[in-house]
Amino acid sequence: MQLTQVLPLNQLYTSVFPNKPIQLLTLTTLFTGVFAIPTPNEKRACAYTCGTICYTSSAVSAALAAGYKLEANGQADDSYPHVYHNYEGFSFPVSGTYYEFPILKGGSVYDGGSPGADRVIFNGNDQLAGVITHTGASGDDFVSC
Questions:
Q1: Which domain holds residue 35?
Q2: Helix (H, G, I), strand (E, B) or coil at 132
Q3: Is 18 in the same domain as 2?
Q4: What is the number of domains present in the chain?
Q5: Of 61, 80, 97, 136, most Cβ neighbours within 10 A?
Q6: Given 42, 71, 82, 88, which residue is catalytic?
Q7: Looking at the structure, do residues 68 and 130 belong to the same domain, yes or no?
Q8: Pairwise pLDDT comparison (126 vs 107), residue with the higher score
Protein backbone atom coordinates (compact mmCIF):
# COMPACT_ATOMS: atom_id res chain seq x y z
CA MET A 1 0.00 0.00 0.00
CA GLN A 2 1.29 3.50 -0.86
CA LEU A 3 1.11 6.30 1.67
CA THR A 4 -0.62 8.56 -0.82
CA GLN A 5 -3.47 6.11 -1.33
CA VAL A 6 -6.81 7.23 0.13
CA LEU A 7 -8.73 4.44 1.81
CA PRO A 8 -12.23 4.30 3.19
CA LEU A 9 -12.31 4.37 6.97
CA ASN A 10 -13.01 0.65 7.35
CA GLN A 11 -10.10 -0.31 5.04
CA LEU A 12 -7.78 2.07 6.85
CA TYR A 13 -8.67 0.45 10.17
CA THR A 14 -8.20 -3.10 8.91
CA SER A 15 -4.85 -2.18 7.32
CA VAL A 16 -3.61 -0.79 10.65
CA PHE A 17 -5.20 -3.54 12.79
CA PRO A 18 -5.34 -6.62 10.49
CA ASN A 19 -6.16 -9.18 13.20
CA LYS A 20 -8.79 -7.16 15.02
CA PRO A 21 -12.41 -7.15 13.85
CA ILE A 22 -13.78 -3.70 13.12
CA GLN A 23 -16.25 -2.30 15.60
CA LEU A 24 -18.03 1.02 15.46
CA LEU A 25 -17.19 1.74 19.10
CA THR A 26 -13.47 1.19 18.43
CA LEU A 27 -13.49 3.63 15.51
CA THR A 28 -15.47 6.20 17.46
CA THR A 29 -13.07 5.96 20.40
CA LEU A 30 -10.05 6.10 18.12
CA PHE A 31 -11.12 9.21 16.26
CA THR A 32 -12.75 11.01 19.20
CA GLY A 33 -9.43 10.83 21.05
CA VAL A 34 -7.59 12.34 18.10
CA PHE A 35 -9.91 15.36 17.90
CA ALA A 36 -10.09 15.93 21.67
CA ILE A 37 -6.37 16.60 22.09
CA PRO A 38 -5.74 20.34 22.54
CA THR A 39 -3.00 21.83 20.42
CA PRO A 40 -0.17 23.93 21.89
CA ASN A 41 -1.10 26.81 19.58
CA GLU A 42 -4.67 26.98 20.88
CA LYS A 43 -5.59 30.51 22.01
CA ARG A 44 -6.27 31.04 25.68
CA ALA A 45 -9.37 32.89 26.70
CA CYS A 46 -8.94 36.57 27.46
CA ALA A 47 -10.31 37.58 30.84
CA TYR A 48 -9.53 41.23 29.97
CA THR A 49 -8.36 42.95 26.81
CA CYS A 50 -6.50 46.23 27.17
CA GLY A 51 -6.07 47.80 23.75
CA THR A 52 -4.85 44.78 21.80
CA ILE A 53 -3.30 42.96 24.77
CA CYS A 54 -5.08 39.81 25.98
CA TYR A 55 -4.79 38.99 29.67
CA THR A 56 -5.79 35.55 30.91
CA SER A 57 -7.34 35.12 34.33
CA SER A 58 -4.09 33.55 35.54
CA ALA A 59 -2.08 36.63 34.46
CA VAL A 60 -4.56 38.90 36.27
CA SER A 61 -4.39 36.68 39.38
CA ALA A 62 -0.58 36.71 39.35
CA ALA A 63 -0.44 40.52 39.12
CA LEU A 64 -3.09 40.87 41.83
CA ALA A 65 -1.24 38.46 44.16
CA ALA A 66 2.10 40.24 43.67
CA GLY A 67 0.58 43.70 44.19
CA TYR A 68 -1.42 42.66 47.23
CA LYS A 69 1.58 40.95 48.84
CA LEU A 70 3.65 44.14 48.54
CA GLU A 71 0.78 46.31 49.82
CA ALA A 72 0.05 43.99 52.76
CA ASN A 73 3.75 44.07 53.73
CA GLY A 74 3.66 47.87 53.89
CA GLN A 75 5.59 48.38 50.68
CA ALA A 76 2.93 50.55 49.04
CA ASP A 77 4.64 53.90 48.55
CA ASP A 78 5.33 56.20 45.59
CA SER A 79 6.30 53.20 43.49
CA TYR A 80 4.01 50.21 42.92
CA PRO A 81 1.64 49.30 44.30
CA HIS A 82 0.28 52.67 45.28
CA VAL A 83 -3.10 54.12 46.12
CA TYR A 84 -5.36 54.56 43.11
CA HIS A 85 -7.63 57.58 43.57
CA ASN A 86 -10.18 56.67 40.86
CA TYR A 87 -10.30 60.16 39.37
CA GLU A 88 -12.08 58.63 36.36
CA GLY A 89 -15.02 57.54 38.55
CA PHE A 90 -15.07 53.81 37.74
CA SER A 91 -17.81 51.82 39.44
CA PHE A 92 -15.86 48.90 40.88
CA PRO A 93 -17.61 45.79 42.25
CA VAL A 94 -15.66 45.97 45.54
CA SER A 95 -15.14 48.81 48.00
CA GLY A 96 -11.81 50.60 48.37
CA THR A 97 -9.18 52.04 49.35
CA TYR A 98 -7.92 50.97 45.91
CA TYR A 99 -4.38 50.17 44.85
CA GLU A 100 -2.91 49.93 41.38
CA PHE A 101 -0.25 47.53 40.23
CA PRO A 102 1.11 47.00 36.71
CA ILE A 103 0.10 43.97 34.70
CA LEU A 104 2.47 43.03 31.91
CA LYS A 105 1.79 41.30 28.61
CA GLY A 106 3.06 37.77 28.36
CA GLY A 107 2.14 36.94 31.96
CA SER A 108 5.33 38.31 33.54
CA VAL A 109 4.92 39.86 36.98
CA TYR A 110 6.09 43.45 37.35
CA ASP A 111 9.28 43.80 39.40
CA GLY A 112 10.39 47.35 38.63
CA GLY A 113 11.21 49.48 35.65
CA SER A 114 8.70 50.74 33.13
CA PRO A 115 5.19 49.76 34.25
CA GLY A 116 3.61 49.86 30.79
CA ALA A 117 0.06 51.08 30.25
CA ASP A 118 -2.03 48.46 32.04
CA ARG A 119 -2.94 48.04 35.73
CA VAL A 120 -4.82 45.71 38.03
CA ILE A 121 -6.86 47.54 40.64
CA PHE A 122 -7.47 45.84 43.98
CA ASN A 123 -8.45 46.72 47.52
CA GLY A 124 -6.85 46.06 50.91
CA ASN A 125 -8.89 42.84 51.23
CA ASP A 126 -7.10 41.25 48.25
CA GLN A 127 -10.18 41.65 46.03
CA LEU A 128 -9.90 42.48 42.35
CA ALA A 129 -11.67 45.72 41.50
CA GLY A 130 -10.83 45.74 37.80
CA VAL A 131 -8.23 46.06 35.07
CA ILE A 132 -7.59 49.44 33.48
CA THR A 133 -5.28 50.93 30.87
CA HIS A 134 -3.85 54.21 29.63
CA THR A 135 -4.24 52.86 26.07
CA GLY A 136 -6.98 54.84 24.36
CA ALA A 137 -7.37 57.30 27.25
CA SER A 138 -6.75 61.04 27.20
CA GLY A 139 -3.62 62.37 28.89
CA ASP A 140 -2.78 60.49 32.06
CA ASP A 141 -6.31 59.06 32.46
CA PHE A 142 -7.35 55.43 32.39
CA VAL A 143 -10.10 53.54 30.60
CA SER A 144 -11.52 50.16 31.53
CA CYS A 145 -10.20 47.03 29.86
A1: 1-40
A2: strand
A3: yes
A4: 2
A5: 80
A6: 82
A7: yes
A8: 126
